[in-house]
Amino acid sequence: MALFLLLLPPLFFFPSLATLPILFPRAPQSLLANLSESNKYPNLPYSAHYFPQQLDHFSYQPKSYSIFYQKFLMNSTFWERGEPIFVYTGNEGDIEWFAANTGFMMDIAPKFRALLVFIEHRYYGTSKPFGEKSYESADKLGYLNSAQALADYAVLIRSLKHNMSAESSPVVVFGGSYGGMLAAWFRLKYPQIAIGALASSAPILQFDDITPWSSFYDGVSQDYKMCRIIDGFPPEVDILTKVFSAASLYYNYSGSQSCFNIGYEADVHGLDGWNWQACTEMVMPMICSHKSMFPPSAYDYKEFGDQCKKTYGVRPRPHWITTEYGGHNIKQVLSRFGSNIIFSNGMKDPWSRGGVLENLSSSIVALVTAKGAHHVDFRSATEEDPTWLIEQRTLEVEIIRSWIDKYREDEMI
Ligand SMILES: *[C@@H]1O[C@H](CO)[C@@H](O)[C@H](O)[C@H]1NC(C)=O
Ligand SMILES: *[C@@H]1O[C@H](CO)[C@@H](O)[C@H](O)[C@H]1NC(C)=O
Ligand SMILES: *[C@@H]1O[C@H](CO)[C@@H](O)[C@H](O)[C@H]1NC(C)=O
Ligand SMILES: *[C@@H]1O[C@H](CO)[C@@H](O)[C@H](O)[C@H]1NC(C)=O
Ligand SMILES: *[C@@H]1O[C@H](CO)[C@@H](O)[C@H](O)[C@H]1NC(C)=O
């Protein structure tokens, strides 16, 4: 496995899509090992629950019916019966991490009297169907794919609505990065369950060929909070010190570490699971030119496919995602067959290259900010938020409100 990681173009793995720490360091292994479940995310305002989920939603072999426990987080403080349910479609990592970084949903919950639910993606965090053996072989990893994950969310949401007598509550799905892709796809595949989706920084796969996204990281600054830290230093301070301090926003090194560890240790983003996804359906070719602070890298699809075959015994299916969810000719197709999706993207986020950047219809809306970074709109509001960010969030709230109002109107008919 380790060999495999080293052989692949590193940038492929940096952007685990898992949001911010991606660009920079992985926390030292010893520190990570110390972050146990309980103290990793202290004071997270959610209660944890475990749902008996079916292993395979798409076949009827006896083993398909095996159960694993899927974690989800919930907060019902603001909820009133009949009022909306906001669901975060978890991505490739511990669900707590995404809950901790998506304060936006908590911020707006009182306005909507919404129930908040964050569902962990299968094969990540503690939602591993085969426990520690889940990544052992393709036989076990075979159930790790986006279609199964979406089906998990659908089944869990139905069960939750039933248990809470919340059948009439409209569901809105939220997701950032890969989670944003899932949120948008969820709205397309399960419109009867979710009335709308807010997909932040989702590089929704639109291409049908294997042309790399060029100059992926060139001149890009990743996160505006990190940038604020960097900009806060006097000019004479060296770049590594600045960047290191910025990274400490996410990893508390307590000043004891003096150098980056740009390794690929197991971390909260579950890169082991992501490697499998990248080797099967999530084929995102990227390169890095010589213009950025990162080492240049090229992309060789054949070499990549060979590595996947060698490691897992399977080859990527680069056209499957666009076949399953659409993506080719996205403008024409989505405007006809989809509705109620917000794609928000910040142009300082390298992933915006793959995002939906124009309005496709009156209800498939692109909110594009010149200064925005990787799903910065999903973070908790702070005193220092710039006007453009406040405006972006306000617009998101207004649009979600309009979906709910329309849903209520239709209910009356
Ligand atoms: C991890 O925890 C142990 C025991 O609490 C402590 O002795 C050690 O210094 C910690 N390591 C790090 C890197 O924080
Ligand atoms: C739900 O959120 C509210 C507001 O943030 C908080 O006061 C409450 O403790 C949370 N509930 C749980 C179960 O964490
Ligand atoms: C709903 O209730 C059933 C029966 O108690 C339980 O097995 C299931 O986990 C519950 N669903 C959710 C989403 O909590
Ligand atoms: C970082 O860790 C140190 C030592 O454990 C602690 O005193 C400090 O408050 C932490 N800083 C942040 C921002 O959490
Ligand atoms: C899309 O439409 C919304 C209004 O619904 C507008 O605020 C936004 O700027 C438009 N997006 C683009 C990329 O033009």
UniProtKB/TrEMBL annotation:
Span of the signal peptide: 1-18
SUPFAM superfamilies: alpha/beta-Hydrolases
GO biological process: proteolysis
InterPro entries given in the database record: AB_hydrolase_fold, Peptidase_S28, Ser_carbopepase_S28_SKS
Alphabetized UniProt keyword annotations: Glycoprotein, Hydrolase, Protease, Signal
Pfam families linked to this entry: Peptidase_S28 (PF05577)
Source taxon at top rank: Eukaryota
Gene Ontology MF terms in the entry: dipeptidyl-peptidase activity; serine-type exopeptidase activity
Entry's family note: Belongs to the peptidase S28 family.
PANTHER family xrefs: ALPHA_BETA-HYDROLASES SUPERFAMILY PROTEIN (PTHR11010:SF31), PROTEASE S28 PRO-X CARBOXYPEPTIDASE-RELATED (PTHR11010)
UniProt-recorded name of the protein: Lysosomal Pro-X carboxypeptidase
Biological source species: Dendrobium nobile
